[in-house]
Amino acid sequence: MATYRDEIDVPATAQRVWAVLLDVERWPQWTPSMTAVQLLTPGPLALNSQVRVQQPRLPAARWTVEDFMAGRSFAWTSSSPGTTSRADHAVIPTTAGCHVEVSLVQTGPLAGLAGPQQLGRVVVLKDLSTTSKLVLFGARSFSIWDAATGAQG
Fold first, then answer.
1. How far apart are CA 89 and CA 101, in angstroms?
2. Element (H, E) at 61
3. pTM higher than 0.85 for the full model?
4. What is the per-residue pLDDT across 58-117, written as a single tens digit (0 to 9) for each?
5. Are 75 and 87 in contact (CB under 8 A)?
6. Which residues make Cβ contacts (< 8 Å) with residue 115, sequence separation at least 6?
């Protein structure tokens, strides 16, 4: 078994951060760990939703939402030969904004071979006045990406 975890405190409301995490089809716009994400079931992400995720250097994978608590957390799983992956995403309200946690647990004989790449980065809102500016958090580094201009700095 291999486990990866990342977390950050965010000076934005849990509702704002939840909205960004829930919009999975836009994840490739802000994380290099995903090149395409397609919701295969109609409607917004919810319990039992099916999602096709394409990541660099990996075959496309189908993820199924197995746990869903609106406004708070979701977890999805994917299986491929030799490994089963479960990724959890949580937004926890705090007095200063919220705390975001992501984790990836892989089991099976090939567990851990693609883990850090699959985890990607936590995205959180940086600018409370607009939803276009995001902070990309991962590997102990921070950067700001402006969705309106595509600039990163």
1. 6
2. strand 61-69
3. no
4. 889 999 999 999 999 999 999 988 889 899 999 999 998 888 888 888 888 877 665 444
5. yes
6. 2, 4, 85, 104, 106
